[in-house]
Amino acid sequence: MPRIESESFVVDARPQYPLLISVKRYWSPGFDATDDDALTLVLTHAVGSHNEQWEPVLEELYGVNATASSISKYSFKVREAWAIECPNHGEGALLNEEKLKTEYASVFPVEDYARAIHVVLSGRGEGLNIDFKSRRLVGVGHSLGATALILSRMIQPTIPWLAAVLIEPLLLSSEVDKAYRSPLAALAAENPDVWPDREEALKTIKSGSSKSWDPRVLELYVSYGLREVSIMGQPKNKIVTLKCSKSQEAATYRGVLGSSNALAYLPTFCSNVPVYVVLGSKADYLPANNSSNLVEKDAGRKFKGVVTADGEGHFVLQTNPQAVAENIYTSLIQAISTSQLKTKL
Fold first, then answer.
1. DSSP character string of 234-255
2. Where do the domains of the chain lie, and which CATH numbers do they carry?
């Protein structure tokens, strides 16, 4: 499997955008390309997740693409991938800790994740000197991250997405959104969030609701989704807890009203961007009819492709990175073959 390397950045666009943004660049030595037709992937994550959750998917994606290229099947060039973290998650939660305790204590709007994506890709602020306007940008978002990708296109200047892959997108009508917000916020508050060390955290998480996660994803979650804190200010006495606290996870669920706004904007998004949707076959998180309603032909949302990951649910990215990578590969190959994308490549 191709080796993945990374480097981290912090984008500071204050005071235009009040929060610091944690960004991670990924590439695979020997498989990265600087050709004009090479794609730049932009990765966005779900509630309670972090940038590094994408690493197993990237390993699998580079692998399947390299294999296809070696046997003369369809493949595409990838320049690099950029993971943009929701600013109250992962490393961003530490960078913005004090700000989150005040202005975002009760609600973290998904629109603020969309704004963070736009800040990074439009080149605002300091900390990252990349001209994304000259890149062939493909958005790949999971759950809340898919919602944020859609909303990011509503901000001016418009991000020139060449294509988008939406994995189990968190897109709900306003009525369903309101009904789901409180239970999801309550669920976040009930989850365990303190362990004596990372080893115990991994053991507990493995035996809980995340026991079906891919082992690589679990290891990354314990390494990058948790933090050490001192007890009573004594450095020698430490415990392990979540980087994105339970209160901030709940605040994010309270702020997903943007999912209904994104759903309303989706027909416009689809008319301007080739959109591919990856859905799980199990309704284990969102309403049972949500997927069928999303792809309903009469709703005006014209997707270029819809695939279903058999046996998987909402957290398919965590449970089966290989299936996600294969579906991204299939979507991008299909995208490249379409006139909309081919003319720009």
1. EEEEEEEEESS-HHHHHHHHHT
2. 5-189+254-342 (3.40.50.1820)
